[in-house]
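We give the chain.
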Amino acid sequence: MFSNAQQGSGSLEKNKHLHLPADFGRRFLISVDTEEEFDWDGPFKRTGHTTLSVGKLQRFQSFVEKYDIKPIYFVDYSIIENDEAAAFLKSVSASNNASVGVHLHPWINPPFEEETSPYNSYAGNLPKELEEAKIVALSDGIEDRTGKRPIIYRAGRYGVGPNSIEILAKHGFLIDSSVRSRFDYRDQSGPDFSHIGPDPFWLDHEKGLLELPLTTVFSGLLRKQGDFLSALFNRSKMAGALFSKSKVLERIPLTPEGVSAREAKEAIDIAFDDNLKLLVFSFHSPSLSAGHTPYVKTDEDLDRFYDWWREVIDHLLERGASPISLDQLMAAAGLKDK
């Protein structure tokens, strides 16, 4: 059902949206793609990366705990192999102050049967047996190091494919969060989510596997036509820039990476005005340390990163939103760990 680059992904929303309880209110969730540092502009390599940002995870955890936020750390193979990271993840998981999910970067995750390439960096493009073997290897590693079997998945590079749902259901996953709503990665051989909105929805008829998209909203005079015009953002950077600059149409994902606090607060207001009950934020863990992502290049940028969170979380609380944990979300959705 998750379609590959050639097929598109519009069929996903034919499934029913999740109906949340009447007293659910307004909630938000913070997720962290917890991964190694590597050259985002360079070729994909199995070696040569670092995990220097691991030591910065505790600072972020301590920061969000002040707001009673319980983040989800989606971790890849390099992270779970790191002793410091494994100890941290086991601790926050055992204390129920955070949850741990699977984040598959195929190029650094065994078994290594494929060539490293942009196409193969999307796990959903791999042969079914290889995609499954990599997911199982990482899941086993997380369970071994943390003591808990992961039940939530996010493909690296949002790279789900036509076999992903079957694989996740087979191995006991209850939630996928690989869809980056309203983005299209077909020009990089990835999936197309351009016509998928931010509402959670079921991936199977039995309502046993939930899709939790990363939140993206449209703002501007033409925002109600955003889904129709979204192709212009994905096909032409110039057209997207012109739309944004003129304020006619802006696409705003909920992330501190490349999005200002002003834009994020505007997106929050629009989402709530449109009756979206659950907002999903995300960022990459290397942004917790200066010099590893395009978004946090200096210590001053890192200070601004935390200022962004303070301003955005304060705005969420002012709008009557409260944080939600993975366990609380599962309860609201009627999902039970197997």
Residues 261 and 308 are 6 Å apart (CA to CA). DSSP finds ten helices and eleven strands in the chain. The first strand starts at residue 26 and ends at 34.
